[in-house]
Amino acid sequence: MWKSVFYKEWLKIRWFIVGYTLLGVLGIGYMFLALKHSFAFTEGENMWHLALFQGHQFYSHFKFVPLAGGLTIAFTQYLPETINKRLKLTFHLPLAENKILLIMQAFGACSLLVSFLIFFGLFTGFSLIYFPVQMVSNSLITISPWMLAGFAAYFIIVLIILEPKWIFRFCYLLIGGFFMTIYFTLDGTAAYSHANSGLFILTVLLSVTFVFSAYRFRKGEA
Amino acid sequence: MIECNNLTHYYGEKLVFENLNFKVREGSILGLLGKNGTGKTTAFNILNGFLQPTSGKCLIFGEDTQHMSPKTKARIGFLIEGHIQYSFMNIHQIEKFYSGFYPQWKSTAYWELISKLNVSPKQKISDMSCGQRSQVALGLILAQDPDLLILDDFSMGLDPGYRRLFIDYLREYAKAENKTLFTTSHIIQDMERLIDDVLIIDYNKVLVQSSVSEFRSNFRRFDFVLENDETDLKKESFIVNIEKVKNKVELYTYSTESVVKKYLDDNHILVSNFAQVEMPLEDAFIGLTGKY
């Protein structure tokens, strides 16, 4: 049965996740092309100096890319479920309601994860061409909260879309907006090195919040 | 098969129904009739576990509808008002999707119905007419082969041809396979063609639960013309409803002709053209619940 749920979710998001991943890959390609250009016209030491001592992040344009991915997948996956309250069809399937929602969410999160791993891999591979391991490692620590923010945005939007009452949606939006700022507060390179594990736990906790909205939807609190 | 006991529901402070009790017996086709706002969809939502009643409960196959197990849900075919389905799928994809949930899935039942639509398997549901979508929704229910079918306003948005196709297919299937069907529709002529038993609810209460034939034979309409159109017709307990337009009167009652004539005589009401009129279900429904 989970295969059927995956199939439905795939039908909803396939063009969006493929398009998003392609755009992300192109973006990363462009980013490193620009970096190559900079290396060609500037001494490598200068670039390292900028990165090491002046906090220059050549990848800063990437900051909100995972966030955009989380939002895109959440909307494309869950809006079709709420139009005409189609979620009733989903809840009528012969599976426990929370289990179905969990499978749906796991599919969305795994799709994002695949995209992010591709980005992560490309970013790491290209970075190692130009920078030493220590600098690349710091860059990865820097982009980790941005990646986590993509998942957090996805979970928060799921919570908001499934919520049947507008007043609660608004409250979730405010609280969710506050949570999202946590992932973007510090700008320095590797600034989140001690906070990433905490952010990871926070993101995992956000992944189960959908049960509140789903329960209220099922009980007809619209 | 379905049993609702002392069902009461409020939306905020607005009472929808109070102490509603009804049963749907196995193998029957029961139609729920009521005016707009009397709680038909509310009752369906409670039955499907999408709404928690303020008090009381409904049982389907002996299970509380608020906590139905996947096994019980697999035995129930459900049609949402407006034939809502996953419109981002095409007719092949939706069949493939649902077939994964039901081990007894009958693909041929689905494709047999779809073949009447003259559409390709890649036809997207969102691009289909409401009538075509209704056949897809019905085909999916037939392929699921449930023991109980719950259909909320199946005629919504359908033209007469598709309504007839839907009803004839459904009735034949339900009778041939001894399925139980609980349904509602705004078009009572459709219901009359489909249902065996009727449950009529009005604001807050059940007015009738019986077989259609029993209701139609017991509930009577008498038409007459008043000699004096100023005559005030006193509503006595045996009279369910009186509709009066100028001097023409329709009187609805469960009582016999002799009771009505005695009432007219006792009150010195002079009438002409007195006659009992046969009613289709729709007229009986309007006579019972009133036009407003």
Overview of this protein structure:
The complex is a heterodimer of chains A (222) and B (292). Chain A has one domain (2-218). Chain A has 9 helices and no strands. Chain A has helices at 2-41, 44-53, 65-82, 87-92, 97-130, 133-162, 166-182, 196-206, 210-218. The relative contact order of chain A is 0.13. Chain B is of the alpha/beta class. In chain B, the strands form 3 sheets. Chain B has a 6-stranded mixed β-sheet with strand order 6-7-8-3-9-10. In chain B, helix 3 packs parallel to helix 5 (130-144), helix 5 runs parallel beside helix 6 (160-177) and helix 6 (160-177) runs parallel beside helix 7 (188-194). The longest helix of chain B is centred in the middle third of the chain and has 18 residues, at 160-177. Chain B is elongated. At the A-B interface, helix 1 and helix 4 of A face helix 2 and helix 3 of B.
Main features:
heterodimer; A: 222 residues; mainly alpha; 79% helix; B: 292 residues; alpha/beta; Rossmann fold; Alpha-Beta Plaits; six-stranded mixed beta sheet; 33% helix; elongated
